[in-house]
């Protein structure tokens, strides 16, 4: 999902109207003539070659606006443009597209954080976070719903984080308007370490270009973007940029757990199954709220269920039957179905089976959504209902917004995703810090986060999770972060938050309000820590597990 896990990516292109230069509104920038001159040279080159090339010279379109925020009306500057990243010999290797929102009138940048946002995939642009979460304007959504065709509701976002941080939304190379330059090809950046290197260079370039080295710095990733964040926490620090914080939304940190033969994946999914069954009224004795059923499922999954799975084929028939009955009570599935699945129900089977009696499937990215398959007797859903429900609104809204309001125009197509392009193949190997362990065949970036937090005691990590996200189950995130080998003083810098939503938790307006509240309190801690240079101890935040339980 926008967010994009590797098997579900949207390969779409948006062709924007063809005005070749990024135009500023009156009085917006001092370097317009330089941009124009450089772009005219690009146009000559393009005309000779017969196609549009990404610009080597950095471009910007600067516009000014007023945002509605929790702190009241705020004047801000929106900058849509490109960053040229270079190799260690200063040779240009990629043009990276970004949109930045910065508050006007800031006098002390040492107390004004800057946050870098990106989606995942791998191979997704950052269209989804940009259009749906914390920017000053967003697609207006209700959750869960199928958004009707155009015209779409797009407008002011009172939950924008502009009241707490400047924001920079960055597209991965090969997506959006980001492209490789020179001898490099987009595919050269399609891998765990290659991608992290490109983002590290882009972030450092933005910070240098805009003189933000003294500002508190935060990175914010969603889905595979959390894998990227894990790698970046250590990589940026290793290159001289120690982060103040990292936010991971709908996380997948360890891909190795998805290999056949490991039972932990079934344990991780159990609480998400229970939350979904509760939502769809499939439990015989449901508790009053989803947080309660989730806690019950977590205790059972990590206790009796884990012990039973650990015995494998040695599990006796009586215990097997008891486990099936207990699992049925928590998941809404029949004991016989669970026994037939050898107590190990994979996600696709759960999606198809839970509401089979109603001829419905449940969504993967958000299990509150339901779909209708042509074949109700099939084993797996024919499509993900939660994926198809919102894509059109996000793509169309960006297409209109980037042209009309940001005034950024180019002949290049905007790639919503690189997945499905000719030659798209992700390199999953990863050189994790630590030495002596060899290259990982499947990335486990919890190792990177652990190394970063052990060497930077001021680094805060905030984990945001949706109860109904079955693409990246929240119990798996807990497991990974609780197994990083941190001392208690370091572990106290990790906080968890949970919301009544799915993978794109911000689609639910109630969840978005909760997220803003929790993030606002977290950013206040970041700024306070940066000012005092004292590692904060916040046990209430780090131990919080209830829905939306951050400070008001």
Automatic annotation (TrEMBL):
Residues 25-42 have a biased composition (Basic and acidic residues). It holds the Pfam family Peptidase_S10. InterPro entries: AB_hydrolase_fold, Peptidase_S10. SUPFAM superfamilies: alpha/beta-Hydrolases. The keyword Ribonucleoprotein does not apply. Keywords: Signal. One of its GO terms (molecular function) is serine-type carboxypeptidase activity. Residues 24-48, 532-552 are annotated as: Disordered. GO terms for biological process: proteolysis. Residues 1-22 form the signal peptide. This is Peptidase S10. The lineage of its organism: Bacteria, Pseudomonadati, Pseudomonadota, Alphaproteobacteria, Sphingomonadales.
């Amino acid at each position: 999902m926008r967010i994009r896990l590797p098997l579900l990516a949207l390969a779409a292109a948006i062709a924007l109207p063809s005005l070749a230069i990024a135009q500023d509104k009156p009085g917006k920038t001092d370097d317009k003539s330089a941009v124009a001159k450089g772009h005219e040279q690009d146009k000559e080159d393009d005309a000779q070659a017969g196609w549009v090339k990404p610009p080597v010279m950095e471009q910007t379109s600067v516009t000014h606006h007023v945002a509605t925020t929790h702190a009241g009306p705020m004047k801000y500057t929106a900058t849509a443009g490109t960053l040229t990243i270079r190799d260690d010999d200063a040779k240009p290797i990629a043009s990276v597209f970004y949109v930045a929102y910065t508050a006007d009138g800031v006098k002390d940048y040492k107390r004004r954080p800057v946050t870098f946002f990106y989606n995942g995939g791998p191979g997704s642009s950052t269209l989804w976070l940009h259009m749906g979460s914390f920017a000053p304007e967003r697609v207006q959504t209700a959750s869960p719903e199928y958004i009707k065709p155009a015209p779409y509701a797009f407008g002011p976002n009172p939950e924008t984080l502009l009241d707490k941080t400047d924001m920079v939304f960055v597209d991965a190379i090969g997506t959006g308007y980001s492209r490789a330059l020179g001898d490099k090809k987009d595919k050269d950046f399609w891998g765990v370490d290659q991608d992290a290197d490109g983002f590290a260079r882009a972030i450092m370039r933005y910070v240098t270009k805009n003189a933000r080295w003294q500002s508190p710095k935060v990175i914010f990733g969603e889905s595979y973007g959390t894998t990227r964040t894990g790698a970046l926490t250590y990589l940026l620090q290793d290159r001289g940029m120690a982060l103040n914080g990292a936010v991971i939304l709908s996380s997948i940190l360890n891909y190795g757990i998805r290999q056949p033969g490991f039972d932990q994946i079934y344990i991780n999914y159990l609480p998400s199954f229970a939350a979904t069954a509760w939502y769809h009224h499939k439990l015989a004795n449901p508790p009053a709220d989803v947080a309660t059923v989730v806690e019950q499922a977590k205790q059972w999954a990590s206790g009796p269920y884990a012990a039973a799975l650990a015995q494998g084929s040695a599990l006796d028939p009586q215990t097997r039957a008891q486990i099936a009955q207990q699992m049925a009570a928590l998941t809404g599935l029949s004991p016989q179905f669970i026994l037939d699945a050898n107590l190990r129900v994979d996600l696709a089977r759960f999606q198809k089976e839970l509401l089979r009696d109603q001829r419905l499937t449940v969504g993967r990215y958000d299990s509150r959504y339901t779909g209708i398959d042509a074949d109700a007797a099939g084993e797996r859903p024919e499509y993900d209902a939660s994926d198809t429900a919102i894509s059109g609104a996000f793509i169309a809204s960006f297409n209109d917004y980037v042209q009309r309001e940001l005034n950024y125009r180019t002949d290049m197509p905007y790639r919503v995703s690189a997945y499905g392009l000719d030659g798209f193949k992700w390199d999953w190997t990863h050189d994790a810090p630590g030495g002596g362990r060899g290259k990982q065949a499947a990335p486990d970036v919890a190792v990177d986060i652990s190394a970063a937090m052990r060497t930077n005691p001021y680094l805060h990590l905030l984990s945001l999770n949706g109860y109904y996200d079955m693409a990246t189950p929240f119990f798996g995130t807990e497991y990974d972060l609780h197994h990083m080998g941190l001392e208690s003083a370091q572990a106290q810098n990790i906080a968890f938050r949970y919301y009544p939503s799915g993978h794109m938790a911000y689609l639910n307006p109630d969840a978005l309000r909760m997220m803003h509240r929790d993030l606002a309190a977290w950013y206040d801690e970041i700024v306070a820590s940066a000012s005092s240079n004292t590692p904060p101890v916040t046990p209430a935040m780090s131990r919080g597990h209830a829905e939306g339980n951050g400070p008001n």
